[in-house]
User: What shape does this take?
Amino acid sequence: MKTTVATFLKAKAAGEKLAMLTAYDYTTARLIDESGIDGILVGDSLGTVCLGYRDTLPVTMEDMIHHAAAVRRGVKDALLVVDMPFMSCQATACEAVKNAGRLVKEGGAEAVKVEGGLRVLPQVRAILRAHIPVMGHLGLTPQSVNVFGGYRVQGKGSGAARELIDDAKRLEDAGVFSIVLECVPAELAKEITEAVAVPTIGIGAGAMCDGQILVSNDMFGLFTDIRPRFVKVFADAGALMREGVKGYAGEVKSGAFPDAKHSYTKKRADKERGDG
Ligand code: KIV
Assistant: This one.
């Protein structure tokens, strides 16, 4: 069943939780989509987990389009959301609309995600006027890492908490179809979730959000440079891959691989071509 932004809104109304994961390439996207997931985000986290940058700031529109288009080819059922990278929507509403449009036309996005509240509201409104669905993102917005002075839990004081609640309501009023809440205290995430009619998707925001998202490379144990508290490894593909590499290299060096089963003989090659 194809998931759409309408499915997200209906899920909140019905009290059904939404599950999302990130993906950055065709193979992983296809695997995730076939396993059953509501939404796939081509996050700008691709900068850290795929491209090896220290943070998401160097990620370009070209990077996002390249990876989004690959993911698009692997996704059938999940809602495909693509991140607006740093400086693709900060300068002007006009640029924001053009870049969001590129993510849809060239990357195959069905919705875009924009980090921030009040400060990007004109851009969010303009993208929505172009009929491109927007997912908001509040709390620890990684593109603001230099303003925050590191990756820290947000909304801790009462003033900061109030600001996040107000931002969530502003985004809802503007027309976003959901809001990611990243690294905020669980009590605050619950308050925000109860204050808005659109689903909240938590990452490090406790169990009371309407849904959850994880970076797939984190939850598959593939990216281990940092391990935030909210990451749970559901399947340690990283350990399996290391084991696989050791086994392969060992067999190559010992001469055990390739064996007859994994080799062509002239007779077998002729047979496979249908020559007799
Ligand atoms: O870039 C990303 O992967 C994200 C998620 C962590 C929500 O924004």
